[in-house]
Structures are given as C-alpha cells and as structure tokens.
Amino acid sequence: MEAGMVSVDRWTHGSQVYFLTHIHSDHTKGLSSTWKLAPLYCSRITAKLFPSKFPGFNLSLLRIVETGVWYSLSLIAPSSNSLVTVKAMAIDAQHCPGAVMYLFQGEFGCMLYTGDFRWERTSKKAQFGKNMLLNALRDKKIDNLYLDNTYCNPSFMFPSREVAAQQVVDIIASNPDHDIIIGIDSLGKEELLLNISRVLKTKIWVWPERLQTMHLLGLHGIFTTKTSVTRVRAVPRYSFSIDTLEGLNLVRPTIGIMPSGLPWALKWVGENRDPLQSSSRSVSRGDRINRSSNIGSYSNIEMPNMMVKSFERYHKYMYAVPYSDHACFAEIQEFIELLQPDTIKGIVSSSPSYVDPHYYFSHLCRGIQPSCKYQKLERPTERKKDEELHTKYNFGSKKFVGAASEHRRIRPRALHSREGCVSILRRERRGVKILETDCKD
Ligand SMILES: [Zn+2]
C-alpha cells in the first residue's frame, strides 16, 4: 500500500484514514480529545469507551466496524492522484474488550495488522477468529504481517488464560483468611475477574473509574466500590508493590496476585543468571524449554508440561500467575504457521531488546527475507538471548508491574535483584503508517 493512505494505531499527520485496534494507551499515543485529522475506524466496544478515555472527542469522526464484515474505502493514491479501493475487515483479537486485528486487501496485496492479540490453541473464540480470517482470505495469502511480538522469544511460555485463571482461584481459595489484591490495568483481565467472582461467589472491589468502565462493558452487579462487601480487590497495577503489601499486612493479612506473562519470563531468565536465580523456586525438568533447539525450529518446546505449570510465590505476600492477554511464543509460532506470510514486521519495535520476528520464524515465511537488519544481525547465542530478555525490564523499583505496562519498572524485592538493575524503555509507541516500503527495508 502506498504511503499517505492508511495508519493503524499511529496518530500523526499524513494519512487519509486511521484505524485503532484497541484503546490501551500504548496504542493511542498521539491521540487526544482534540485529535481531528480524519475518520477513525474502531470496534463498537472501543467506540463506547472513547468518551471516558478522551472526554470531548469529536465522536462524529468515529466509524464503527463490525467483525467479519468487509468495508470498502475509496482513497486517493498519492503517486497517481487516482482513486483506489482498499478493503478492510476487523477480526476479534481476543486481547482486551474491543480489541481487533485489521485485514487489508487491495491492489497492493494483503496485509494483516494484529494489534495485540492472544489466540490460544484451546480457545473456541480464537478458533472462530481463525475461521473468520481464513474465510476472508480464501485462496489469498498474507503478504505483510504486522505482528504482536510482545512475547516473541521462546523464553515466554505460559499456559492458557483458562488454566491461569484457575490458578488464581486456587490461590484465593487456599487463603480464606486473607484479603486479596490483584493488579490490573484500566482495561483488560475482565474475564479473569468474572471467573473469580463466579467460582468463589464473591463480588470484586474496583476503583471508581474502573467500575465505570465495567458498566460501559455491560458488567453490572459483580463489581463494587464498597470495601466492606468483599475481600477481593482489583487495584491499579501501578499502585501494586511489595511496599503496599507490607503496609497492608500491618493491618490485615493480605496477599497480592500479579497476573502477567512477564514475571513468568523473568523466572526463566533467572534460572541461568543471578540475581533472579537466588529466590526463584526450582523448576522441574519437564517444565523447561529445550534450549538445545535449533534456531528456527522450536517444535520441541515442552508445552504440555507448561500447560499445567503452577504459579510462583515470589514473596511471602506476592504471587505471580502467568495470565496474559498476549500470545505466548508457541501461539505466535502457530499463528505464523497458519498464515505463512510473505514478510513479518513486529509492532513492538521501540524496545532496545527488539528481536526481528524473522530471527525465529523466517523458515515459516514464503517471501525473500529483508536483506538488511535481520541478516546483518549476529545470530544470538542462548546467553545473548537471555541478556536481551533482561534488558526488557527494570529491576530498580518496588513496583511490581507487568508486560502491558510502559515506562514502568519492575522491582520484585523478593528476587533480591537490586544489584542487577537494568534500565529499559519498553513499547514507547506502537502502530504504523502503512507504507509500501514497510516490510521491504
Ligand atoms: Zn493492549
């Protein structure tokens, strides 16, 4: 597709139409209440959340897309000044409420921008999405895949959300005399909270703005802002720390639960390196990734054992549970195997730890691979990959935050990691102006 036509999750000047995959803040940087560049396409749920996220936003700019429906856009090709048609379809990304992928078709070929997504192999909803995508493609193939590469590293292995949700329920049920606090973001993890509420027959406390969001999502009667009616509280992730838990335990016995794919990966990294190693519980052999895998072939990752992996107790007051709204490495691989794109571009590209998805998956792509960045890279050793993972996180803070956070710090004190401080900025911004050259540089 020519430059100057379509942007996805990118809000600068220069495009004729804009698409928003979901309303997490790392996808809306540059979008504001006063933004008015052009029509903005998004899902119905995202549109519903717009006024609270961007008060005063001109809602007449929004164009709601339903999933599974082709929308035809008449745009001007800047090079020829002629009218061209671009077709777009939204597909449920199974990430957070309202999150969708976008499939584009036109003279340029076929592009898929996943935004953030999680398609678990055991999920019926994911299967529905796969069928929708394959039906839309028919006999066509994806030329350019813009991929959620958040966990595009074999160290990121975690179970389905269904399994992880049961782990959270088990922790809560086995601590009947404790107050429970769970760290969440301003959107996402609703299914986890609903599952806790349903199984344990309890309401869940959320902060007032979050209650408003729950109501906008149609979730009534489950969440409350009254602390007296429940011992389970979902709190903003940024307020969640060991310090907070220690303070709360001076008053009442309290444990914290952090649902994220991130601490899970930290544990893997810590197996081989200080400082994490000292306090991570040992891992059974069957849970380990087979690190003798050849580059480009990870079929021998021991996923079945990972599926029954238990949570981690990082601190006497803190549990980390591998509940993530992003695809783990094996799911990314499965996704690429399904689509066999010509080229792949990771949408998380601002991190210094970025690894070109071609590094792991070039053998699954149909096309000739980009000739510069990837091929000039030294093939990382396993140790180097560990270092790359390490650089993704910051161990200098007492905040215990997870994968979807940006510019935040991790300092799981229980990991005794002060001497291992590594600073990073992660996911400064996402999104692309769709450019003809995007996948060819
Ligand atoms: Zn997201």
Automatic annotation (TrEMBL):
GO terms for molecular function: 5'-3' DNA exonuclease activity; beta-lactamase activity; damaged DNA binding; endonuclease activity. It is an enzyme of class 3 (hydrolase). Its EC number is 3.5.2.6. Residues 254-345 form the DNA repair metallo-beta-lactamase domain. Keywords: Chromosome, DNA damage, DNA recombination, DNA repair, Endonuclease, Exonuclease, Hydrolase, Nuclease, Nucleus, Telomere. SUPFAM superfamilies: Metallo-hydrolase/oxidoreductase. Signal peptide: none annotated. One of its GO terms (cellular component) is nucleus. Pfam families: DRMBL. It is found in: Chromosome, Telomere; Nucleus. This is 5' exonuclease Apollo. It comes from Heracleum sosnowskyi.
